[in-house]
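Researcher: Can you fold this with zinc ion in place?
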Amino acid sequence: MTASRATRVVVVLGGVLTVCAAACTPAPAAPAAAPTGEPSPAAVLSPLAVFPLAEVAPVLGADNRMHLAYELAMANQSSQDVLLRSVTTLDATRADAVVTTLDGDALARMFRPSGDSAGATLRPGEYGTLFLDATTAPDAPLPGLLRHRFALGLQPAQAPEDIGPRDTDPPPPPPQNIEFTGVPVPVTAQPAVTLSPPLRGPRWVAGSGCCDTITAHRGATLAIDGTVHVPERFAIDFVQLDDTDRLYSGPPTDNASFRYFGTAVLSVADGTVVTVVDGMPEQTPGRLPAGITITTAGGNHVVVDIGGGRYAFYAHLQPGSPRVRAGDRVRAGDVIGLLGNTGNTDAPHLHFHVMDGPSPLQSNGLPFVFTAFTGQGVVTDEATLADTTKPDAAIAPIDRGLLSGPHRAQLPLNLQIVDFG
Ligand SMILES: [Zn+2]
C-alpha cells in the first residue's frame, strides 16, 4: 500500500533520517564499485535492522513457478512504531529489476511480529519475521543476489492500551514515510535435489507445505543455542485420504482408524544412515502430547546423508519399525520404517524434510523435488483435516482442478493431493 504524499523532510531518530512519501523516487541501486569507505549518497539511516535467516535456495513448485522462499527477521531499533507498507524483492544481478512486491493484506499475512502487534507493525524494540515467497517463470534467469526496497510508515509510539479507536482521543498524526534499499541476500546456484517419493499410493496430502502461507513448518524459526534455524522451510506432513476423501474412519483416538497408519516409508535417495532413534511410544491421535523437547519432537526417526551436504529426515515412525541402523547404506526405494504417530504429533503422518546438517532441527531446510507424481487437486480447508473430534472424518473439501495432472521434478505445494507411483 502506498501513500500519495511526495514531500521529503528530515527528522531526527537517533540520527538524521531521510523521510519521504512512499511515492517518492526509489533510491538508486548501490554502486557496483568496491566500497570507498563513505556511505552511498542514497544511504538512509533506517529504523529497522533486518537479518536474512539464510541464503535463498530456489525450487520449482507444482504450479510450474520457481519459488524463492526465504525469511527476513527484523527488529525495530527506533523509538517510534514502524508500519511495514511494502517490501520489494529486487534482482541485484540485473540492475535491481523488481522480482515481486509484497504489500497490504498480503504482506500482513506473511508477517509475524514476536509480540501482539496487529498487522505488519512493529512497536519500539519489537522483533518480527517476514516470510517471503518470490516467484519467477520456470525459464527466467534466476537472480544471483537479491536486495530489498522497504517502504515504511513511522508514527509516535502508542502504548498497547491506546491502540484502537477511542472517541475521546485526538487522532494520531499521519505516519511519515521512509524508504530504503539494501539487505542483500545471496541466491544459491545449486538446484534443488531430485528425489524419489517417500511413499507409494494415491491421495497423499502435502500438509503444512510450501510456500505462500506461514504454516507450522514455514513458521518454525527456531532459536537453538541462540542461532535461528528454519529447518522445516520445505517440510511436508504426508497424510492420506481414503477413497471417500476422508482422513480416518472409526474412533479418532485410535491410530488404526487412519488406514494409512503403518504404510512403508521409502528412502528417497541412495545414502548412508546417520541416525536412527527408536523406542518412543505411539501418541493418541487428536491432541499434541505434553513435555516434548527438541530431541523427542521427531519421535522415532531416521536421518540419511544423501550426499552434497544434504540430509533426509523421516519422522514419527512406528516404534520398532526402523529397518536400518546407523552406518547402513540405503538405496532409493528401500524401506526405512513404517509411518507412525510418535513424537510431537496429533495424528499419524510422515514428516519429511531435507536439511543441510544431520540435526533435524538445528539445521537449515533445503528444497527438493520429486521425480514424478500426479496431482489430484488441493484440499481447500485445512481445518477439515485437523478436526479429529468426530467418529468418522468429514469429507475433505477439494478443488480438483488446482495443480492437477502429471508433474515431473517439482515440489508438491501446500495441501496438494498427490498420487505416487
Ligand atoms: Zn511436520
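Model: Folded with zinc ion in place. Residues 253 and 285 are 5 Å apart (CA to CA).
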